[in-house]
Amino acid sequence: MTRRIDLIVIHCSATREDRTFTEHDLEACHRRRGFSGTGYHFYIRKDGRIVTTRSLERVGAHAKGYNAHSIGICYEGGLDAHGKPKDTRTEWQKHSLRVLVKTLLIDYPGCRVCGHRDLSPDLNGNGEIEPEEWVKACPCFEVGHFWE
Question: Which of 65, 79, 114, 118 has the fewest CB atoms within 10 Å, measured from its CB?
Answer without folding.
Answer: 65
